[in-house]
Amino acid sequence: MSSLSKKFEELSSVYPTGTSSSLVLPLLHFVQEEKGYVTQEDAAAISDCTGVPAIQVTEALTWYTMFRRAPAGRHVVKICRNISCSLRGAERLIDHLRKQVGVEVGETSADGRFTLLTVECLASCGTAPAMQVDETYHENLDEAAVDRILGSLR
Amino acid sequence: MEVRIDGTTIEARAGETVLQAALRNGIDIPYFCYHRSLSISGNCRMCLVKVEGVSKMMPSCNVSVAANMKVDTASPEVQRARRDVMQFLMLNHPVDCGICDKAGECRLQDLQYAYGTPRSRSSDPKHHKRKLYDLTPRIQLDNERCILCSRCVRFTKEISKTNLLGIVDRGGHAYVERNQDAALADAYSDNVIGICPTGALLSRDFLYKSRVWYLEPVRSVCNGCSRGCSVNLWRRKKEWWLRGELGEAANRAIYRVTASDNPDINGPWICNKGFDLHKTAARERALTPMIAGAAATLDDALDAARRLLVQSQRPAALVSSQASSEELGAFETALGRRVKVYTRQDCAPAPGEVTEDGFLIKADKNPNSYDVHARFGSVPLPAADTLAHDLFIVWGEWERYALLGRARVIHLTAYPPPRTPHPDVHIPLSTWVERNGTFVNFEGKRNRFERVFDKPPLVAHAVHVFERLAS
Amino acid sequence: MSVERVFFRFDPTGDSHSLDAYRGRGGYQALTKALTSMQPNDVAQEVTVSGLRGRGGANFPVGSKWSFVDRKRGVVYLCCNADEGEPGTFKDRWILEHSPHQLIEGMLLAAYALGARHAFVYIRGEFDLPLRRLRAALGEARASGLVGERILGTPFSCDIVVHRGAGAYVCGEESSLINSLEGRKGYPRNKPPFPAIKGLYQAPTVVNNVETLANVPWIVAHGGAAYAAIGSKSNPGSRLFGVSGHVARPGLYEHPTGYPMKAIIFDDAGGVLGGRPLKAVIPGGSSTPVLTAVEVENVTLDAGSLQQAGSMLGSGGVIVIAEGTCMVRLLHVLTRFYAHESCGQCTPCREGTSWMNDILTRIVAGKGRREDLDNLRSIPQGIMGNTVCALGDAAAMPVMSFMRKFGDEFEYFVEHGRSRCDGRLEV
Fold first, then answer.
1. Which of B278, B383, C365, C371 is most buried per CB count within 10 Å?
2. Looking at C181, C205, C228, which one is the last position of a domain?
3. Which of A 39-68 lie inside 8 A of C, CB atoms?
4. Which residues are within 8 A (CB) of A33 and not within 5 positions of it... i.e. 6 or more apart?
5. Torsion angle of C-alpha atoms A53, A58, A60, A63, degrees rounded to 10
6. Which residues 86-145 on chain B approach chain C with CB closer than 8 angstroms?
7. Is the pLDDT score of C3 beyond 80?
8. Is the pLDDT of residue B420 over 90?
């Protein structure tokens, strides 16, 4: 049994009966956590186990911004560009990140270490500016903190 | 119940929406995404109306009628909303009308003329999306023209149930996309072309063949199976006939086929085979009567056939399920008691053709088997060595005369008969688009078709053939 | 008289989120009381009497929403909306991080009142610590017989499933959340039918915000009347207000409704950064109309007061803007956000949000035109009230209010091709 089918079985026992289409998002998350991104084949496999039409899985894959369709760097840096973070210097830090990582927003560094993305509100408005690197939140940022965080990651 | 729309009292039915009640009473509320045979989407926002007692305007496609409801569809607020929706729809819509097949039958064009403003309020470049590509071998998609009404998506989800189409990506980036499995087929796919309110989805077969205002529809019936869906066959209008050589083909062509709404039989849908009727109608024809393989006049051929019949002791006829009820009636009157009648379902499914599905397509690929059965019962042709007829009138297509035993053959068919051996007499017949008539479908429902073209000069109508044979 | 607190009743430590700590401060006593001595209708009644309104931003009376559910329909679902995404709002994550059991207890009480056998927490896909703390708390609760079959040995059973979102602000809208939970894009639904009639898998469904549900244990423990006595009469209770932007001490402050806006900015949050003059305040999350410094002089954090001032209480996210901030560039941050988050389903929002953003993008690049100002005034009117969900309105209101209150800055930018305030967002 593939790891996807195993995950589907496990989730099916947790979710109420008759809600297998709800498993599309958790399974998309699962694939991305295992592999770092989600392909059309993965979408087709999710369609097969949940019974949800393949086009509907593709719709979800393309509509939610957290899912990646192609591999990213070893670490994904997501810095908030919304209002409270902007009022507290997010633009300055985005510029700093672009220079430090050496890429434009949306790109991956040549050494494959970092992908730099801007994201919308992370609900860290009281501790702005904030960014999320992989799963971890980093708040109350300044240039020094950003450099420390990046420096600690291979 | 009674509902007031713009001060007029109309009669509304329980369970109806305001939009349905209005349309049924001849009140024109504009809409794009609503379609009476699809689920309610309520996303185009063109049908917004003001319901008394509700502060926001509501999409009339999703408001159920209630007794004594008062609806306003004409106030400045409603007019302003329609203007705004049109402005938003036209904001990034490419000005393709000059090269777009949909012009002249385009809902977006029509509603823009009626409710939009002549100038855009934006002078920014329009957003670009994928243009003019093959969604399937039959359908062209242009994502810039698309207004994301989702009718096509709902069709493949709810009606053909193939889930071929979806809308991917978010916000202004959204676009219609197909299931990536190229092998996924939809036998009803072309219906999305008709329900698309813009030129986003177009028939590749019909692409650039003609402007639609040069054409007119003729109500006909599909002969592809025993459901006998109502179709429209489109021909060139008389006043737009071309002269000279160009005209010879163009004036006798069926340019395209569309579904004709028939609530009793097929609703607003037909299958792809129906959409291809113009191809079946354009098959190579038999145009010259033949006696013993040699060309003859129609009169001579009919005389020869009649003499054969008079001289025969044990004549038989093999009747066609492609025949109209009028033709079957003429045959029955003229020859029904004179010849032994055998029946058949002429046309068998082609290899790979969908046989029966839970929707429109029937396994019997003939339009009038029901009437044949009603008149003659089911009398299949037995093995050739048991047959002892001396004359066989074969009606419809037939390949091997040897299967008819050692009989003379009069072959009545619209299409070229076998050459070796050739039939004793061949009389070319008209096809169903060259006459008026009726088919009776598998449920016993009668459906009338109308003549699209005159028949070719040397070709005979079957009813006249039978009259002559019996005289 | 000490002010009643519903949330900030303890000092958060490394352990204060645990089951033991929660029990130590009286946790799950309300649940025990409800399951052993109250009927579901009694619980619902207390909530109605309390006057509790939704804390997600819509401010709808909770008791009314619950009353629309017909328990006789069989399956009823409860969904906790933990998809906190309104810019300026960061209270729900605090509850999940520091008092997740308070939410769980609130959900169980709501499920009991509604007859919901299954409940979901729809949580931001981005959330890290809040997710881990919530999952840990649910593990503790299940192990202690507080969630699952026969809770506390009573006939009441309820399972809670944590369901992660995947990056979509619109999924905070209740019908969008439901579609997302069903495994689809988060397209909102046209209403009617409302979720309480036909929601998740067409069953009656109640969607409530984290903070809303986390109020319920207090209400059951102390009674609805006691809650109704806190704060403003028309929208009572003790709320978590988030203050962010140009203030010395950004953060969460709990106060009863009706607390003065000036107090939360200048007392709690230490005033404007650098002692600068106040320029503007967005009172309830980015979707609420902006107010000038003059307009907030006498305003209180109360639905009626803010409505009278031409704005809304919203999600309680107070965003403070100091003198010297370029309002044009700031609005661009917002139009970019709404264009990015528009789901794409309906015409006015899909086309209007990207249009407004394209215009702002051009203006801040120095390429604004006179007609842009006319368009920025008229486009929101084509959107307001005409969309499937409130995201359209949420995108329109900042544009309308910024243009109305700070229109001269926009005119300057268009005329001169540059900001009157050096394009400053940070002070």
1. B278
2. C228
3. 50, 52, 56, 59-60, 63-67
4. none
5. -150
6. 87-89, 91-92, 121-124, 127
7. no
8. no
